[in-house]
């Protein structure tokens, strides 16, 4: 989907481009790395977001990060579902995952704050906090949120019945091992919502109206059940003062989870963390060992010199004795 892209572009009209092969859906031409923005537009692509910084393809896929992780940094992942990079912040350490301590990172609150300076970059203007606008990607008013509108504006939550936002169950997080940067456990939890304004359906027959009502789980009143030629309107309980109001209707909520099996963690502790500990031991002991060798070398040299001096003294004494004897003779 993002092949050749250094800036994220979307294909809002999937019917643009060459005729599809049998069995394939119509789509834009494959994006080319040498395209300019103008070339991309000619081939049916548009920049996904409102600035070059927002459109950057950056970060990892979330399986591995630069290490060691100190807990002071943020990590960046590129999220396919969001069509964007996401900054994740450190919130604390998770202890004893099969005997390994992990560092937990969650989505930054800034990514869903539509009153922030980032909102223009992400086309978030005039959106309630807690929603991300994916309309360009979907081709219709499509908005991303945390499940059950967790941490969204109260007005968004109050407009929908049956919500039960829970940070424990609806939070997206990554748990990564400190020294290797490897992700051991993750949950990506998101919700896709349709943005609804008043819907008007002109010239609906009774059967058409009943079919649509079934899809929308709506009971029709007597006026709506008759065969109508005039426009039929459902307002979804929106205020009467204008069409600028929108209801965010949850459509899909999903949780993608992964965690390393216990057997892998066991091997990791033995092969990686064990090697790391040994390396640290060598790293600490190495200089001490070098100093010890140097001291031994100094002692050997000093003893050698002492032996040489003693040998020279003996030779001198012997020579002096023989010389004096010669004189006596």
Percent helix range: 25-40%
How many structural units, i.e. domains? 2
* SSE pattern, N- to C-terminal: EHEEEEEHEHHEEEHHEEH
Low-confidence stretches: none
Hey, roughly how much beta strand do the residues contain?
A: 15-25%
Radius of gyration: 36 Å
Tertiary shape: elongated
Mean pLDDT: 76
Q: How many beta-strand segments? A: 12
Structural class: alpha+beta
Characterize the largest beta sheet: strand count, sense, and whether it forms a barrel: 8 strands, antiparallel
Give the number of helices.
7
Report the span from N to C terminus: 111 Å
GO molecular function, one term: scavenger receptor activity
Family: Belongs to the CD36 family.
InterPro entries: CD36_fam (IPR002159)
Transmembrane segments: 284-304
What order do the helices and strands come in, and which of them pair?
Layout: E1 9-10, H1 37-42, E2 46-47, E3 75-79, E4 84-97, E5 100-107, E6 132-133, H2 135-138, E7 142-145, H3 154-158, H4 167-170, E8 173-177, E9 183-196, E10 199-201, H5 206-215, H6 222-225, E11 232-234, E12 247-259, H7 262-328
Antiparallel strand pairs: 1-2, 3-4, 4-5, 5-8, 6-7, 7-9, 8-9, 9-12, 10-11
Describe what you observe in this structure.
This protein has 329 residues and is an alpha+beta fold. The chain has 2 domains: 1-47, no CATH class; 61-268, no CATH class. It is built from 7 helices and 12 strands. It has helices at 37-42, 135-138, 154-158, 167-170, 206-215, 222-225, 262-328, and strands spanning 9-10, 46-47, 75-79, 84-97, 100-107, 132-133, 142-145, 173-177, 183-196, 199-201, 232-234, 247-259. Strands 3, 4, 5, 6, 7, 8, 9 and 12 form an 8-stranded antiparallel sheet that branches. The protein has a two-stranded antiparallel ribbon with strand order 1-2. A two-stranded antiparallel ribbon has the order 10-11. The protein is elongated and about 130 Å long.
């Amino acid at each position: 989907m993002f092949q050749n892209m250094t800036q994220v572009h979307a294909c809002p009209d999937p019917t643009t481009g060459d005729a599809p092969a049998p069995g394939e859906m119509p789509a834009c031409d494959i994006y080319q790395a040498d395209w300019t923005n103008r070339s991309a537009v000619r081939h049916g692509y548009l920049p996904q977001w409102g600035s070059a910084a927002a459109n950057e393809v950056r970060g990892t896929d979330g399986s591995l990060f630069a290490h060691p992780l100190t807990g002071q940094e943020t990590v960046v992942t590129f999220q396919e579902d969001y069509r964007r990079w996401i900054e994740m912040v450190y919130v604390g350490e998770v202890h004893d995952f099969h005997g390994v301590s992990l560092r937990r990172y969650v989505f930054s609150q800034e990514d869903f704050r539509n009153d922030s300076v980032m909102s223009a970059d992400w086309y978030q203007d005039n959106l309630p906090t807690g929603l991300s606008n994916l309309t360009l990607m979907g081709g219709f008013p499509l908005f991303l949120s945390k499940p059950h509108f967790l941490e969204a504006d109260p007005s968004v939550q109050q407009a929908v019945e049956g919500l039960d936002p829970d940070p424990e169950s609806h939070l997206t997080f990554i748990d990564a091992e400190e020294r290797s940067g490897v992700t051991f456990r993750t949950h990506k939890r998101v919700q896709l919502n349709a943005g609804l304004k008043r819907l008007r359906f002109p010239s609906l027959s009774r059967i058409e109206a009943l079919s649509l009502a079934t899809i929308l789980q709506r009971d029709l009143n007597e006026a709506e059940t008759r065969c109508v030629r005039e426009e039929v309107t459902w307002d979804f309980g929106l205020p009467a003062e204008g069409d600028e109001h929108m209801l965010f209707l949850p459509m899909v909520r999903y949780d993608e989870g992964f965690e390393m099996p216990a057997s892998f963690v066991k091997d990791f502790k033995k092969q990686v963390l064990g090697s790391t500990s040994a390396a640290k031991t060598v790293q600490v002991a190495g200089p001490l060992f070098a100093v010890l060798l140097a001291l031994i070398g100094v002692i050997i040299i000093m003893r050698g010199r002492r032996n040489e001096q003693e040998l020279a003294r003996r030779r001198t004494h012997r020579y002096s004795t023989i010389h004096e004897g010669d004189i006596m003779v």
